[in-house]
């Protein structure tokens, strides 16, 4: 599914860590690995040098891992230049790190990370790096909604990330509490919750079984964003992989945006995947 993977690198260290996730995925998929650095107008020479040094380190790592690699340096506006590279090179997925503005700014539709996710014609993995020195996650938390699109790609991405890191996958679904008139909230056992597993989540788990990935699932009543961060912290997960939100700005104002909650509050690394490959 992924034969060409692109990692966007800049002068910040978190972009280099994000690119290492992309490098691992390229190894697991047998894909060509491309690095790009887009120098924005007004960038200082020291920042330019930091980005170039990161590109060199990553290129050497790719060569040592026997991964076909190339590096691309351009000047201009990052989103436009990366889109040109994606179309010209026929890239399947782009990795980019989130910046401080993505974490601090509510409704992050105007940030570079969000614009990449929305505008690129390929899949996009946005990476929030929390632990700079840890890119070998042993426990991966995958929160899923009841209805999800691109099930096959989501499962493939998760399986390959788990494969390259020798990780176990934990699928988590935050459900609305079940209530009965006059009787208040109904509490179910884990087995009873399991019988209520949505079809899309069951399909996702079947794909993981196809890829021979060790996994288990859990359902828990509660609000999605806060339930995910609580689960990640309580069980000490190393990485969370979740889908990007399709909610409109108006909906986010009144109902909240689970992605933004996790982006701000998670205590471990986070990958927000916007898949574009159609299920077949």
Give a brief description.
This protein has 280 residues and is α/β, with parallel strands linked by helices.
Task: Please explain how this structure is put together.
The protein has helices spanning 13-29, 45-64, 78-89, 100-104, 112-119, 151-165, 190-195, 199-210, 224-234, 249-255, 258-265; strands spanning 4-9, 32-39, 69-75, 93-97, 123-128, 139-143, 168-175, 178-180, 184-186, 215-221, 239-243, 269-274. It has 280 residues and is of the alpha/beta class. It folds into 2 domains: 1-129, 3-Layer(aba) Sandwich (Rossmann fold); 130-280, 3-Layer(aba) Sandwich (Rossmann fold). The protein has a 10-stranded mixed β-sheet with strand order 3-2-1-4-5-12-11-6-7-10, with helices on both faces. Strands 8-9 form a two-stranded antiparallel sheet. Helix 3 (78-89) packs parallel to helix 5, helix 6 (151-165) crosses helix 8 (199-210) and helix 9 packs parallel to helix 11.
